[in-house]
Write a structure and sequence with these properties.
Elements: H1 2-15, E1 24-34, E2 36-37, E3 49-50, E4 52-64, E5 69-84, E6 95-112, E7 115-133, E8 142-145, E9 158-171, E10 176-186, E11 197-210, H2 215-236
Antiparallel strand pairs: 1-4, 1-11, 2-11, 3-5, 4-5, 5-6, 6-7, 7-8, 7-9, 9-10, 10-11
Length: about 240
């Protein structure tokens, strides 16, 4: 019954009249937390798991389709990973895992006035990465470059999952400010059998201007205006 009520509320939110959606290009530059999930086989790591803060940089393009719907393809570079505290059952020492990735989400976005919900698939490619450990009483410090492949000691190049969340648009005089809250649910074991998944909450604050008119269309309008003026001049010239 509760699920039905929630569904009806969401439907009612978007059936009512909405503001016509426009097209925007957002530049993404963010310093955001990410984390790794180690699955049911590594429950002992729960108390040792910490997040990792890294750079996110790229672009988000909102293509307005109609009054309440838009499609949002994105592309950005992102540093993500996780940290395990000292004396954890997996590595035995403070460990930082970092992946340098390219993320390519494609989201469907539903709008209601200045509020929106979005969800869609995301494909990721791991460019590189490293595993860094700190020295403790038993183990020395170390830094290891990640090897990618299908072997048991390698990591997966490709990752895929889902992103979903909500956002709010603050309309300014000549631009907009967007607060975007999103959850990334990784579905690929990037540890090749070790139950390691990218799963984290992400928050972005974006400032953007409306997408400008196609310059080719402007050129066409200028050409048409020129020839219309030229024809009018010929018609009014003395014969």
């Amino acid at each position: 019954m509760r699920k039905q009520v929630v569904v009806l509320m969401i439907m009612g939110l978007f059936i009512t009249k909405a503001i016509a959606q426009e097209t925007y290009l957002d530049v993404v530059i963010n310093y955001t937390p990410t984390s790794l999930s180690y699955g049911d086989n590594n429950k002992a790591l729960k108390d040792f798991k910490k997040g990792y803060w890294g750079l996110q940089a790229g672009a988000s393009f909102q293509a307005g389709i109609n009054d309440y719907f838009s499609v949002v393809p994105e592309l950005y570079f992102m540093m993500k990973g996780g940290r395990l505290e000292n004396k954890n059952p997996l590595t035995g020492q403070d460990t930082r895992i970092r992946f340098n990735t390219l993320d390519m989400p494609v989201l469907a976005r539903l709008h209601r006035c200045d509020l929106y919900l979005n969800a869609g698939p995301v494909l990721s490619y791991n460019i590189g990465g490293r595993l860094k450990t700190k020295e403790n009483d038993l183990l020395p410090a170390g830094k290891t470059k990640m090897e990618f492949g299908s072997g048991p000691n390698n990591y997966s190049r490709w990752d895929a999952g889902l992103q979903f969340g909500l956002g709010y648009e603050f309309k300014l005089k000549k631009s907009r400010l967007v607060l975007d809250l999103r959850y990334h649910y990784g579905m690929v074991d990037i540890g090749n059998g070790t139950d390691m998944y990218n799963r984290y909450f992400n928050m972005n604050l974006l400032l953007s201007k409306k997408w400008k008119t196609n310059p080719l269309a402007k050129r066409k309008q200028r050409d048409m205006a020129f020839w219309e003026a030229y024809d009018a001049k010929l018609e009014n010239s003395p014969r």
